[in-house]
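Notes to self, Acyl-CoA reductase-like NAD-dependent aldehyde dehydrogenase:
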Amino acid sequence: MTDGSAGAGGAGGQRLFVGGAWVEPDRGHYEVVDPATEGTVGWAPEASREQVRAACAAAREAFGPWSRTPPEERAATLARAADIMRARLLPYAELAQAETGATTGTARGMQVGVGVARFRRYARVEPAEWPIPPQVNEAGPMGSAGVMGAVAVRQPVGVVTCVTSYNNPWANPAGKVAPALAMGNTVVVKPAPQDPLSVYRMAEALEAAGVPRGVVNVVSGRAVEIGETAVSSPDVDMVSFTGSTAVGQRIAEVCGRDMRRQLMELGGKGAAVVLDDADLASAVAGIATTFSFYSGQICTAPTRVLAQRGVYEQLVERLAACAVRLKVGDPRAQDTVVGPVISAAHRDRVESYVELGRKEGASVVAGGERPPLERGFFVAPTLLADCTNDMRVAREEIFGPVVTVIPFDEEEEGIALANDSDYGLIDYVWSADVARAFRVARRLRAGGVGINTVGRNMEAPFGGFKRSGVGRDVGSYALHAYSEVQSIVWPG
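result:
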């Protein structure tokens, strides 16, 4: 598959997008591989440090004019970009599918479709000022008695480096770029090296929508120094990162030295607490999304199931039956449910965790063997039962279609097990007693809790406790995340 877009260079090689221009990469191109077929999707550009610095400088130069552009004009630009993306949904989804191995429904609906929706969401202008109740001050060293009025104003942060994840090259960058631009920031996007071509299509749509030169820049590469330069540039005011906790910690160290703002959405090991009065059909349907949705490559997946003894055996039996029924294979086939993981290296990593689970004493009740397919990086949906919470497979993020199940006796024990984790992104509770479910949810140390669902409200704040991240985004919370709050005070 070759990329014949406007940003593509000679022989199908993608160009960088820097300062409003499509430029040839200093360090050539590298192959982007389709994880389902192992064929070539296209050729991604490898930027140099100098080109990354140029992108940051271009964003800095563009920040002043863009931040002073009326919010209504910025919103109109985002709306035009959303229209362009929607019109090109099918070819964009085809490329995303080739880069990620997503099923057709996921590529269209959850990748490009959600990306479009996020641009539309931030094409709405929201108030950037909040009045503060007046305060009566007595006479003193600061002046005579009087009434002081005040207002809080959201101001853009400045230049934002957006480092995005490989599992969704549309929704994840859109969730950063759209609110950042809506607030008047400029961006330098460093996409994941495995699937950067889709992000260049997003930049192309923004260019066609009339985004001024330098407001959006995209630089890619496999070398660690590309991301390091984009994060540490003195032109950058904020870093928004989605990825592993280990990488997030290194980015936070760099940001901390210069007091650079940061938004971190990191790893997860979502606990699914299934109480003994739960609707097991609902619980199985929700937990099984770990197998099917992005092949488990999603930080919000309910990968650590905590099942009360009264339903433990029946839940394991139903989950195992579900896992073996799911078709693994060509993500372009209509009946495929589970596509590949992103790379051969990641497949090996996931398989090594399954083997580790065996050694730790877990029972492999479904999956555990590589699917008999000629090509592609496939992992069978795997269920590990009889686990304990101290096993590495129950504590570390596997990021694949692997679920661990841990039994517990009393409600208090289930809550304690759920909270005994380094992570705290999204947990889940299944119970027929809604009051009981809410009681348990309030005690879980996680940024979000789903009650009898794995669905999300896309206006609710999203982010993690503990090592699952710093800050919140989504909905209006993203506008807060990409802004500084300024107080203006005056005598009443």
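- The mean pLDDT is 96.
- The CA atoms of residues 440 and 449 lie 10 Å apart.
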